[in-house]
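User: Sequence recovery, please. Input:
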């Protein structure tokens, strides 16, 4: 799919399990292949070695890597297993380490977001619903479509690629929608996230004094 834009959409993938055969990772990898086929530039954050939030200083190399990737991205895909009716602790740890602001820079504001989950049993939407809430809190544009793969252990080949099914068709739909939303919104982020309350607060802020010796 040709974009006609100056650069490919930059999409970051996060996944929520460190298991050797992690289905949330396999789902993310399948989605990334699809997204790359549309013409996007894709990157992954490997969460192995990321400390619990607050357990290490913010200068920890994995924390810095995650934040830099979030700043690099124009859109993100979050893929989590559902554990006890919610996202995994590892998924939440990654999101906890991404602050709403880094000085004057907001690492997630205005990015597009797609959410996906895998389940060991019947289809559920608890994890994607939680991630939608988190995406809103982090000021992201979460696309309407989403993916929830039930009995994920049945849906992948031995080589990790996804079997043809209605579940995979939905993943294609989600990635196509994310790709389009990212192209449409990325050059309008400053306009769309310009808030009256913030303009009012900035206007009321005292002007720094001028140094007469300069």
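Assistant: Recovered sequence (214 residues):
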């Amino acid at each position: 799919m040709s974009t006609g834009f100056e650069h490919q959409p930059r999409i970051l993938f996060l996944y929520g399990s460190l298991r050797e055969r992690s289905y949330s990772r396999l789902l993310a990898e399948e989605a990334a292949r699809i997204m790359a086929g549309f013409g996007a530039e894709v990157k992954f954050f490997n969460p192995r070695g990321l400390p619990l939030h607050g357990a290490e200083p913010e200068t920890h190399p994995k924390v810095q890597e995650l934040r830099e990737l979030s700043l690099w991205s124009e859109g993100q895909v979050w893929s989590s297993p559902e554990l006890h009716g919610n996202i995994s602790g590892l998924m939440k740890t990654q999101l906890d380490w991404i602050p709403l602001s880094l000085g004057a820079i907001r690492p997630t504001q205005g990015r597009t977001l797609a959410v996906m989950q895998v389940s060991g049993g019947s289809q559920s939407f608890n994890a994607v619903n939680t991630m939608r809430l988190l995406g809103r809190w982090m000021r992201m544009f979460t696309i309407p479509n989403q993916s929830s793969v039930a009995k994920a252990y049945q849906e992948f080949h031995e080589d990790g690629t996804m079997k043809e099914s209605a579940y995979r068709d939905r993943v294609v739909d989600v990635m196509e929608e994310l790709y389009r939303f990212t192209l449409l919104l990325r050059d309008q982020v400053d306009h769309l996230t310009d808030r009256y309350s913030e303009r009012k607060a900035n206007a009321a802020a005292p002007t720094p004094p001028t140094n007469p010796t300069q």
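Residues 10-204 form a domain with the Rossmann fold fold (CATH 3.40.50.360).
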